[in-house]
Amino acid sequence: MSYKFKSAEKEFYLNHSNKVVDFPDFNSDLNTIFINFFDKGKRYSIIKDFISTSNKYEKLVEIGPGKGATLKYFSQKYNFNKIIGFDLIFSDEVQGNNKYENVELLEGNFNYEIPVENNSVDCLILMMVIEHLFDPFHSFKQIERLLTKDGFAFINLPLVTSIKNRLRLLTGKLPETSTNYNLWFDNKEWDGNHLHYFSLDSIKKICKMNNLKILSIRPVGNLLPLKKMFPSLLCNEISFCVKKI
User: Fold this and answer.
1) Which residues are bridge partners to 154 per DSSP?
2) Which neighbouring-strand residues pair with 240?
């Protein structure tokens, strides 16, 4: 299934995706995948506190799963009847490496309404995605549309409010939520193709207006106890879990 959208949009995203650091893929062993994504301080570590390895679930959807490593982990470690990964394009190599019967890879673009039924997703994952999309209000509306009444969405977003960015603004520099400022011009990508900045307050407001309740907010990286105390000042990014009110 393919989406027809403007060539400028496709070029914008695919140019960036071709430069992204080479993450683990379907061929990576589970321990490597765990260390890169699910270990303490990693973006996906929040998931284990809400999704049980012993419970059975119907559907997991991940937007932007890259080369499929996380989909493999969910297939092997959790009991989902169906797992769907949506991305702009999956190479023939990635498609060929998917050996898992319950994992499906589909072309899709979360700027639009993806072809998934309303109220049908038990676990929705958007890590490092919404900051790249055109309209955050549309994105969060889609999250509310897709989740079952007991479903969870796990989202990762950069924060612009860190002390480093406050100091950059004070000294007349631009904030950085992705790559180093000098690399913007080397790569011809404005802030690693991030289109939006977020604060904790803006995240809480956009969730509330879409009937989503934030259940947990987790810092990412090192110095986790300190970051938990002062997330707005010390966190460059956070992962959080929401469900429908």
Assistant:
1) 125, 241
2) 155, 217
User: Quick one: which H or E segment has residue 183?
Assistant: helix 181-187
Domain that holds residue 144: 7-160+194-244
Gap between the Cα atoms of 152 and 140, Å rounded? 13
Count: domains in the chain = 1
pLDDT tens digit string along 115-174? 999 999 999 999 999 999 999 999 999 999 999 999 999 999 999 999 999 999 999 999
State which H helix or E strand residue 76 sits in.
helix 69-77
Separation CA 202–CA 32 (nearest Å): 34
54 in a structural domain: yes
- 138 Cβ neighbours under 8 A, 6+ residues apart: 111
In angstroms, rounded to a whole number, what is the distance separating the alpha carbons of residues 157 and 127?
Answer: 7
pLDDT below 70 — which residues of the chain? Answer: 1-7, 16-22
Q: Is 170 among the domain residues? A: no
pLDDT of residue 10: 76
